Amino acid sequence: MQDGGLRWRLVVPAGGDALRQERLTRDLYAALHEAEGVAVGFADAGQSAGPGHKGAGVGDVALWAATATAIARPASQILITAIKEWCARDRHRKVEVTYDGHSVAITGRPDAAQERVVRDFLDKVGDAPSGGPQGGGE
After folding, report:
1. How is the beta sheet containing 94-99 ordered, strand by strand?
2. Residues 44-59: pLDDT tens digits?
3. C-alpha atoms less than 13 angstroms from C-alpha of 113 in its C-beta half-sphere
4. What is the rounded CA–CA span in Å between residue 119 and residue 97?
5. Are 130 and 4 a contacting pair, CB within 8 Å?
């Protein structure tokens, strides 16, 4: 699924608190791991930890997600719905979702304007072919 589906980058910002960000990212990982049609893993930041350091170095902890296209509901909608449900557990949660240069922030307490932005985002990326967007896209 990782190579055959749509690739997404997910970041859970935590206001500079690295421990909180890691905890929330791991919690989001667990929630998405249970979602049907979604594969998820920790993104390789391309940074290696030096001797005596734990983790991947300084920077954001991020996830990658890939969606299957052989399911009834649009795969992008399944991923976004799972992220919305995770964010809804706490109104202070936020996930920055990026796909093919398009980004959207999903929060735990969305207003009508944010819901419209998320719908627009899904319209832009929802019809992308399974190998990723190639060409015009309509």
Report:
1. 38-42, 62-67, 6-11, 94-99, 102-107
2. 754 444 444 344 444 5
3. 0
4. 13
5. yes
Query: 51-55, long-range: CB within 8 Å, 24+ apart, which pairs?
Result: 55/22
100 vs 107: CA distance, rounded Å: 21
Positive or negative torsion for Cα 76, 138, 11, 40: positive
Closest by Cα among 74, 66, 73, 135 to 99: 66
> Over 53-107, what HEC string results?
CCCCCCCCCEEEEEECCCCCCCHHHHHHHHHHHHHCCCCCCEEEEEECCEEEEEE
pLDDT digits (tens, 9 = 90+) for 71-97: 445 778 888 999 999 999 998 999 999
The verdict on pTM exceeding 0.70 is: yes
Whole-angstrom distance, CA of residue 2 vs CA of residue 66: 5
Identity of the amino acid at 81: T
C-alpha separations of 11 from 34, 38, 50, 138 in Å: 18, 16, 23, 28
Residue 138's CB: how many other CB atoms inside 10 A?
A: 4
